[in-house]
Amino acid sequence: MPKQINPTELTISVQEDSRQAVRAVMLQHWTKENPGSAHTRNTYRYNVETLANGTKIYLTRPTRLNKGCDFVIYAEYPIVRFKNGNAKPPKQSDIHAELSRLIKLYPSGKSSLLRGVQEVWECHDVNKAVQRVCASFPADAHLDIERLLKIAKWLFIEQDVTYWTESGREMLRNSIQKDFGELPCSSVTAPTVLFTKAKRESSLPPRPLI
After folding, report:
1. What angle do CA 83, 86, 89 make, to 5 degrees?
2. What is the pLDDT of residue 67?
3. Distance CA 36, CA 78 (A)
4. Is residue 71 in a domain?
5. Which residues of the chain have pLDDT under 50?
6. For residues 158 and 152, what is the distance between their CA atoms, to the nearest angstrom?
7. Number of structural domains, the chain?
């Protein structure tokens, strides 16, 4: 007998300024999910971004492989679709393809666009990054730029959640740099610390003088 599905839709905002803080907030949301049973299965949709045209970027859980902390990213205004017309979850290769398309259409905006990707990678406010990048592009490109940067934000987060003890979000950034060159320095004046180091020395007693 199939399990009863109990769907829940929530809207969450993740604006933390370091990858550690972002991951902690995401896991806090997952711990609030209700447990299932032998007869019920709980599913979740998390609305995480709204584009200028009113469409959402959202996450679904659990995933098909059900690895615990995984999630799938969807965009109601999708980059790619399945053959039946449904939105297809964006992948790393889709970010590459969209960057290539936009740079080919607007070559003078390449540096600004890649700088926006760098700002998102550094956990800066994605909406401010979108505004800065769009200033270098005509209005008819703004929605696609917003979609690109906001999907990139969540692909970075997905890699941090899934591969935290490995390279995490560096995987997507490194692959982008391999195809498009080194990402320009962020234009944000106050840089964000992505990787905090524990101050081990302060907790140790002073070394004896010899």
Report:
1. 100
2. 67
3. 31
4. yes
5. 190-193, 195-210
6. 10
7. 1
